[in-house]
Amino acid sequence: MLKTLVKKQIFEVFKSYFYDAKRNRMRSKPAIAARIVFFVVIMVGILGGIFLGLSFTMCGSLVTAGIDWMYYLIMGCVAVFLGSFGSVYNSYASLYLAKDNELLLAMPIPVRDVIGARLINVYLLGVMYMLTVLIPADIVYLVLTGINVTKVIGAVLFFLCISAIVMLISCGLGFVIAKISLRLKNKSLISVFVTLAGVVAYFTFYFRAGDIVKALLLNAPEYAAFIKRYAYVLYLFGCFGAGSLLWAGVFTTSFAGLCMVIFHLILKSFISIATTSGKMERVAYKVIRYRQKAIPQALLWKEFQKFITSPTYMLNCGLGIILMPAAAVFMMIKGRGIIDTLNEVFVSRPGSADVLICTGIIFMAAMVDTAMPSVSLEGKSLWILKTMPASAGKILSAKALLQIILSVPPALILSLCTGIIADGSALCRFLIIILPLSYAAFAAVLETAFAVKMPILEWTNENVPVKQCGAAFITVISFWAVSILFAGGYMLVGYHLGAEVYLLAWELLFVLSSIAITKWLDTEGARIFAELN
Amino acid sequence: MLKIEHLSKTYGTKRAVDDLSLHIRPGEIFGFIGHNGAGKSTTLKSAVGILQFDEGKVYIDGKSIIDSPVECKKVMAYIPDNPDLYDFMSGIKYLNFVADVYGISVADRQEKINKYAEMFEITKDLGMPISSYSHGMKQKLALISAWMHDPKLIIMDEPFVGLDPKASHLLKEMMREHCDKGGAIFFSTHVLEVAEKLCDKVAIINHGRLVKVGKMEEVKGDDSLEDVFLELEAV
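Output (structure tokens, whole complex):
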């Protein structure tokens, strides 16, 4: 039974590689191969490449200093960090949010098999991430210090131990997230802030990681002595990675025992967490004064309600609403220095600073993309809009308008703060202020067009329409392309025109494109929407 | 009130509805019966404008659903077999949203909401999110939203599924009352006893083709509707 469940679990994870849900058929062999190659390039080429570079940077100096164990301690920590971050949400989602939990629990399948299959899936995904760190680390170490049997056995056991730690952290934190989520169910804004706090903490550490590694390398002997004195167990763990079989045995046994304890804890609590619907306070119905809305307002209000009640939607499509005001504050404090630096770097291309900071603003404005999944999010409720006396044009307008309302005010705050400190004439500053606003409108109508052209209405998890569908992919690619064209165009030829003319040309382009797409939405887009079912 | 002329709809190579014509007049409760996959839901969805059909015409209150969809939708209401409502709204917010789109005045909607919510005994639940509703409660909310704007035509797909006996009885009374006031109702059902007692007219569909249509007495004669249905299915 466990084998069947594991196969089902793994197929679910990689289903999209083999199966085209939109066309309801298996993908062609070239399409499957292309997806696998793309995946391998990302994992091996990009992630593996980054950690190969990091290993080369550290290994030589640490081995020369005679503290090989510290190299393994650092790389082990990096592997744990990456593996855990990649799997925490996965362990929470696949253990407690799986749609088939109730179905499987109703079948004559032992609960330990259901959990076992889910945990093996979590384990494999964690291993996938951590191997991108450990394989380059081992290769570099063995190349620089020479290979022998003890080191190879040590490396294999080290891998097993690190994977156990990743598993422990993933399951432990997954369990904590599940407990917190039970308390936060139906409290979407709090969920958003808790998640954002986690993301901010992660990226703060991530961006400081380079400085931390530099500091470690510069003062490696001091840190090594400090660890040996105050955190001896970490020293022993590093020795294990560097090939000490005694400590390999001790740590492997300890972590295996801990894994059993965690498995037992999950087994005991699984059913109560996976099947509970969370506390929901009873809201008494009270007749309140209500102001009648016209159809466009009612549709807009409905879109807004959808946005503010879904943490997934808010986090993935509304991040720019928070980031743009934060960036505005940053620009007021550090902006002048950034502009001066840009002017120095691009001294042969005057006006580059204006165009580049404008690129930054439109890039951030693109982080509000509520229109993109808005049609797909209708899902099985699409019948409501389709049977109401509201034209498809009005329905689509409401979707675009929500994005404009959510993106324009923060974009205005950022562009005003930037315009104040920018160089150039009054016209140039004015264009820096209004260009991001035109871009926000352009992005809203373009994403509504993507939304109606590439909807996915059959989904069981909101993540699919919000971030895993074709519209999401095209949106990201398009806005990267626009940003690159905008900045690159100036660097290549636009600087001959000067910043003012260049920005004015893009302003016109955004306005005219927005008008053209709006017309398309009113006619062809409305026709396509009417045909959706 | 509802006129369907030579309606055909194909999914891939399967002809779901084949040259179907029906006419539902004001004051009629019109039942639509057939086996699973016979084409009932496809016909209903085509009639309300959810599905685009390949051939034929649909007129609601004299207007074409293709040429004047918004005008048609103003005078009708639809309830699907599985009422997937907006889970992110509370019951009262959903009803107010529907009322806004149909242009119902605040006083009028309040009166209707109070009346129907009391009848279906869900007044105290209107403040709760729809995500917390059972299937039956969602069905009741969908019924209130349909009746709230006084449509001339109500189209329902399996409306009795999920309703408790009291609510089912109430719905039957509401349907009768609606038609007595000059409205029309077109609904599909598998509950043949209900259809037999409630409907003025009935249509039986088999593999997308209409096999029998007419007044209830004419269709069933001296037999029960179940006997007639099973006999036609066997052919």
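The longest helix of chain B spans residues 165-180.
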